[in-house]
Amino acid sequence: MNIKKLIISIGITCLLGVLLFYKIILINKEDNILENSSLESRKEQAETNLKHPEKETIHGKMLNSIDYFKNCEGEYEEAIGSTDNKNIVKYAIDVENQMGMSSISENNSKERTVIFANNKKLNFDDNNNTYREFEWKPVSRDEKTTKLSTSQRVSGQSSGNLKRLDSEFLGYSSQSLLTEWSTLLARYKDWEFEETKLLDLDCYKLTGVIDKTLSESLQGKFEMVVEKSTGILLDFKSYDENGNIKYYLTTKKINIDKGIDASVFKKDNSKYQKIDKVNTNK
To answer: Is the pLDDT of residue 19 over 50?
Structure first.
C-alpha cells in the first residue's frame, strides 16, 4: 500500500468515526455535570439522594460493575436517533487478568479491534489493513475511587473520580460494561425502578427523566435496563419531547461468567501492515 492510498484510507475511517466522536462529546458533557451546578445544589441533591438507599445500591453497582463479574462476552448496538448509522460492538473481557478484546464497526464500515493482553495493546483496522502495537501495563485496582461512597462520587463532595481508572482494558465495551451513562442517574428523585428480565437475565428497569443540568443533549424521558447482579447496562433509550428516540444502546447477546477461550486475545497479524510501535500506557 503506497502512502497516498494509506492517507485516503485513514481519512475515510476518520469520517466513519463521526458518530462515535459525537457520542464522546456527549459523554464529556456528563463528565462536567458537577462543575455546572452550585455547591449548594449539590449538597441539596446529596441530602435528597440519602432518602433512596435502594437506588444508591443500584447506582453504586453500575459505577463499580467490573467488581461484580469475572468475565463477559457479548455484543451490543448503539446509535444516535433513528439513523441507520449504527455502531456494532463485540467484546470478550477477562476482568480477573485485565485482558480484553473489543471491536467496533461504525456505519457498516469494517471492524476496528483493540486487544489488551500480555502487556501489549494492539489496534487493528480492517478498513486499511493496518495495525499498531503499544506497550501497556494493567493498572492496579482503583482503591481511591472505590473507597468513596456512591453519594460522594456523584455529588462532588470529594475530589475523587466518577470514573474508574483501572478499566482501560474494557476498550469499546466500556459503554455497556462500565457505562459512563450512569452519571445521568445522579438525581435519584428523577427516576424509579422495577424488576424485569432481559436476555433471560434478572434485571432492573429504570425509568424517569434526565435533568438538563446532567445533559442538555439527552435531557428528557429515558429508560435503562441494568443487569441486577453486576450493574452492566443492557439497554438504554433517551427520548425527545415527541417520544422519538434520541440515542439508544441495546445488547444483542451476552454471557456473564461463562468462561472465555484465551484464543480471542490473539489475532493473526499477517495480513496487516504494521504502522509503528509506541511506548505508552494510553
So the answer is: no
